[in-house]
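User: Can you help me understand a structure? I only have the sequence.
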Amino acid sequence: MDDGLRSRSIAACSDPGPGLPPPVMELELPAHGELLTHEPLLQLIAELMDTPFAFHHLHSDRHGPGIPGKPWHHDCESNDLDDPKLLMVHALHYLGGLDGTIGSLTIMPGSHREPWSKSALAHLGTVELPGEVVIDSLPPGSTVLVNSALVHARRPAPSPPGTAPRYFVDACYCQTGARWRPVKPYWRHMLATARALGLDGGRWPELFAERHFTEYARSA
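Assistant: Let's start by predicting it. Here is the structure, written out as C-alpha cells:
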C-alpha cells in the first residue's frame, strides 16, 4: 500500500492498454500466494463445488478509518453458457477481524437466487433492507466464504479516534464446466505467474488453467 502498488494495480485494470500487468501482482507476494492456496480453504471450496474449480482473481486493500460505504451489489461474473447453476465463490479475508469501527459486512440471504445485475440495487446505497444480516464482529484471521452472486454491502460505521486500518484480502474461485469472463486484462500473465510459482503445490491441476476463461472484455 505505502509503495503505491495497490493504486498501480487498479490503474492497470481501469486503463489496461495492451493488457500490461502492474509491477507486482498480489499473488506474487508470498503471504498473498500462501493465503490464495491455503489448503484448508481449498478443501472447503472443493466440498462446496463438488467439481474441479479454478482461481479467478485476487485483490487486497487497506480500509482506513472513515472509509465510505460500498453500495449493495454482487460480484458474480458471467460464463459463456449463461448457466446460473455454475458456482462462483468469494473468500473474504478479514486479517484483523471485524469490530464495527470501519464498516460492517451486510448481506442479503437468498439474494444469489435472483437474476439481478451486479449493480441492480446500487441506487439504494447501503440502506437497511428487510431480512439483511449484519456481520460486524469477527476475530482476527477470519474468512467469510460467500456465493459471489450474493448481494452485499459495506455499511459505513463511525471510527473512534485511534482506530487502526483494516486489511482486507478477497479471492475468487469458479466452478469448471464453462468459460468465465475474466476481470483482469492481464489474466493470462496472472495465471502463468501462479503456475511458475508453483502455487497449486501440484495438488490442484485446474486451479490456474487458462482454458476456463473467455477473452477479456470491459464491463458495459
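Now, to help you interpret it: The mean pLDDT is 93. Strands lie at 53-63, 70-73, 88-94, 104-107, 133-135, 142-147, 152-155, 166-175. Let me know which part you'd like to focus on.
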